[in-house]
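Support case: NAP complex. Customer-provided input:
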Amino acid sequence: MTQNVTPRPVALVTGASRGIGRAIATQLAGQYDLILVARDQERLENVAATCREAGAQARTLFLDVADARATAAALEGLHVDVLVNNAGVAVLKPFLELTAEEWSRQVDVNVNALYHVTRAVLPGMVQRGKGHVCIIGSTAGRNTFVGGTCYTGTKHFVMGFAESLMLEVRDAGVGVAVITPGSVATDLFPEGSNLTWMLEPQNVADAVAFAVNAPPHMLVHRLEVRPLSPKRPRNSF
Ligand code: NAP
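Agent response - structure generated as follows:
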């Protein structure tokens, strides 16, 4: 196993190139060195530069987390103290309009990648007897809506996966947290969507920081964050 050569702990964030993942990465940069994962090289390098300005060492991995082999090869043996499984895709349309490709992509990224990424870094945490696995779920993991057959299904999966994994590894000193945001103003929504009433990505990053900074004996397992007063849009967007 590769040794951590820096004195700071290491956080790996998937889907760090924009949106919620970008906010999480820059939030954690004050405290952690970072391994940033996504496919868009230019955006990811920009996020890495911001993290370095905040004092972190930041390494970029241009990776499709749905690619099992590439993910195992890239992540095998990395020392990771905090894993944030954030990468996700949403194609929100009625079932009869959803193509097989759109279905598979959501399952591959939102569900199967949880296996590929977590399987690669969790053994090191268990071996060391500490670490955090944080997963960005959604209120769509408890709710349903028209156009959400596949997306809500994947996020319901996240809830079951996260709680089962938590029960499996908490005795080994590894915490598993699932953060379930309501709507957040990001590119997940189609261009032209009204984002003015939504949470901001930083709000989710704050929730992640709260979960991973809990006292050693305290496990934050589930944290739901929602917009307050969604019917009164803020002017400051
Ligand atoms: P976003 O702005 O569209 O960002 C998605 C991120 O995931 C991007 O960085 C993207 O990077 C990465 N990604 C997508 N497919 C990938 C793949 N195959 N391999 C590697 N990275 C991939 O969306 P977001 O709103 O920030 O979403 C982040 C997470 O929050 C998702 O899990 C989403 O389900 C969840 N969430 C979002 C909301 C919301 O309202 N926005 C609410 C609740 C939960 P590249 O394109 O560069 O690869």
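DSSP finds six helices and seven strands in the chain.

Case will auto-close in a few days if no follow-up is received.
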